[in-house]
Design a protein that fits this description.
Distance between the termini: 33 Å
Oligomer: single chain
Bound molecules: alpha-D-glucopyranose, calcium ion
Strand order of the largest sheet: 11-10-9-5-2-1-13-12
Number of strands: 20
């Protein structure tokens, strides 16, 4: 039982290291680049950095394919750089949250290299192997990135299971030795001073391929509790599990306030709303706004007191929110701020994905300029299936993971100040107008809005404790809600669209003060495009 959940008012900033800041001109972001931007992050006010993988990796899936959990990839720096990042971040009051990919390794990991040599090799059983079925694949399961989830290895005359790419063989969590190797590795990072962990696709570790079970396997929560007891459960860490298969019931286990699993969970129910039901993320559909409010409300209410939400619009796998559900043209700044207000006003721990605090947008590149394997696999698969080029590109422009991965826009100099060399992925051409330098000089910038929202969370406990009540459930324009605790009330009102509308609520706002507004002034019940306000009153 944890005595204090100190992390509840924390705000976490995600860094995708490859795209954050290059310090040596090779076009790839690196650890020294991150260190050089700690002042910037401290100014923003964040408490922790979730660092996407920097481990040794062939980079088939940009580091989510780990070849050595205890080494830093040379393209990002050295272990000494990493130690320096951890200690320098501390002096900026920032903790480092490592990304743990425990469902699979790279096929270039030493364990897998051994495992595929022979069935008697002590590492063979570290992975999930099956024999052929009547000369065919063990079954018809598909990998998340396209194609079969099974790959044949001649030396052992068996197939290994991979839920992601062929180069990401799944680890066998039913093997005690695997679990203990992972615990030792995690404890080694704990000893180096990290502040927490983000657990990649953690709901998929307890897979049972014979029953075609990928996520939420029967032993999942036993495995997580055992992991907790043997590693981070012993100390004060922020932990967050990534669970695409999360539902209310299991989220209460993942984020049980007794501390037996993680601090909180990433659930993705709201993220899947703008796609055609039962289809893939590429099959676009307009955002059902009322549904969005319902889904977020459901999570707010259900976890209040019995779990903890992670609040996010963006990450390295998702498109940019201002392009997705805001308006990245005429109302880019207004809508970016409105979306920030709606998110940061809720109960849970807010996550900011690099560049979100600048209002960075999606890109529309020709297919040659994409790097992401998921995007490229989909493109080729759908071409083969006869889809029209135009439709495929529309999906890519809307949903490709590379939207989030274009280099961070630091200033208006060449390559947005990200690198002096050639960036590994093209910079968004709008860096001349959208960059950190301009944001920092403008008191009215998107950055200033995020900075303010973080500061509010630190000064008003209601942002953490307040119970959530949705207002105007059926309203087609407003996302409005109350937060309430014993002493105070918070009212968040946001016009979610680009029409000017009147707030259809009779509010006696006499005793309220405005904590934040995204327009210079307010005019009563009239809300301009994407106008958002936060009202506060003491009871
Ligand atoms: C998670 C990561 C994603 C990665 C996948 C496989 O979903 O966020 O980037 O491709 O896991 O590790
Ligand atoms: Ca570099």
């Amino acid at each position: 039982m944890k005595n204090e959940q100190w992390w509840k008012d924390a705000v976490i900033y995600q860094i995708y290291p490859k795209s954050f800041k290059d310090s040596n001109g090779d076009g790839i972001g690196d650890i020294n680049g991150i260190i050089s931007k700690l002042d910037y992050l401290e100014k923003l006010g964040i408490d922790a950095i979730w660092l996407s993988p920097v481990y040794k990796s062939p980079q088939d899936d940009n580091g989510y394919d780990i070849a050595d959990y205890q080494a830093i990839d040379t393209m990002f720096g050295t272990l000494e750089d990493m130690d320096r990042l951890i200690s320098e971040a501390k002096t900026h009051h920032i903790r480092i949250i490592m990304d743990l990919v425990l469902n699979h390794t790279s096929d270039e990991h030493r364990w897998f290299q051994e495992a595929k040599k022979s069935k008697d090799n002590p590492y063979h059983d570290y992975y999930v192997w099956r024999d052929a079925q009547d000369g065919q694949l063990p079954n018809d399961m598909q990998s998340v990135f396209g194609g079969p989830a099974w790959e044949y290895v001649e030396e052992v005359d068996q197939y290994y299971f991979h839920q992601f790419s062929v180069k990401q063989p799944d680890l066998n969590w039913d093997n005690e030795a695997v679990k203990h190797e992972l615990y030792d590795m995690i404890n080694w990072w704990i000893d180096r001073g990290v502040g927490g962990f983000r657990l990649d696709v953690i709901d998929q570790i307890a897979k049972v391929p014979d029953l075609k079970i990928t996520n939420n396997g029967p032993k999942l929560h036993d495995y997580i509790r055992e992991l907790n007891e043997n590693t981070f459960g012993k100390g004060e860490f922020i932990t967050v599990g990534e669970a695409w298969g999360a539902n209310i019931d299991n989220a209460k286990l993942y984020s049980n306030p007794d501390g037996s699993e993680f601090s909180m969970v990433f659930q993705f129910e709201h993220i899947g709303l703008d796609q055609q039901e039962g289809k893939e993320k590429w099959d676009l559909a307009p955002l059902p706004f009322i549904k969005l409010k319902q889904v977020l409300t459901k999570w707010q209410e259900a976890l209040d007191g019995s779990g903890w939400n992670s609040l996010f619009w963006d990450n390295h796998d998702l498109p940019r929110i201002v392009s997705r559900w805001g308006n990245d043209q005429a109302y880019r700044k207004e809508s970016a701020k409105m979306l920030a207000v709606v998110l940061h006003g809720m109960q849970g721990t807010p996550y900011i994905y690099q560049g979100e605090e600048l209002g960075m947008t999606n890109v529309q590149y020709p297919i040659e300029d994409y790097e992401d394997l998921e995007t490229l696999n989909m493109y080729h698969e759908r071409k083969k299936q006869g889809y029209q080029e135009e439709g495929i590109m529309r999906s890519i422009h809307a949903k490709s993971r590379d939207n989030a991965r274009t280099p961070m826009q630091w200033d208006a100099s060449d390559n947005a100040g990200f690198t002096t060399g050639t960036p590994w992925l093209k910079v968004n051409p709008n860096y001349i107008e959208i960059n950190a330098k301009d944001n920092l000089e403008d008191p009215d910038s998107v950055f200033a809005c995020y900075q303010k929202l973080i500061a509010l969370r630190k000064s008003y406990p209601i942002f953490v404790d307040g119970h959530f009540h949705l207002l105007l459930e059926e309203d087609e324009n407003f996302f409005a809600y109350m937060r309430e605790d014993e002493n105070s009330e918070l009212l968040v009102v946001a016009n979610f669209f680009d029409q000017q509308v009147n707030l259809p609520l009779e509010l006696d706002l006499q005793d309220y003060t405005i904590l934040y507004q995204n327009y210079k002034d307010t005019s009563g019940n009239l809300y301009r495009p994407y106008e958002a306000r936060i009202y506060y009153k003491q009871k």
